[in-house]
Amino acid sequence: MESYILDWANLLLRWLHVITAIAWVGSSFYFVFLDSSLTPPVDEDLKKQGVSGELWALHGGGFYHPVKFAGAPPKLPDHLHWFYWESYTTWLSGFALLTVSYLWNANIYLVNPTNPIMSSGMAIVVALAFLVVFWLLYNAVCRLFGEKEGGDGVVGALVLVLVCVASYLACHLFPGQAAFLLVGAMLATSMSANVFFWIIPGQKKMVASIKAGEPVDPIHGKRGKQRSVHNTYFTLPVLFAMLSNHYGWLHSHPQNWLVLILMMFAGAAIRQFFVMRHGYKLGRNPHPWKYAAIGAVVLLGVIAWLKPAPPAAVAVNPAVIAPVGQSVLQGEVVVVAEEKSTPGADAAPAGSYEKIHAVMQQQCVVCHSANTIAQKNVKFDTPEEVKSHAQQIYQQVVLLRKMPFGNPGALTDAEREAFKQWFENGAPAR
Question: Which of 107, 154, 239, 413 could form a disulfide with 145 if both were Cys (CB 3.0 to 4.6 A apart)?
Answer without folding.
Answer: 154
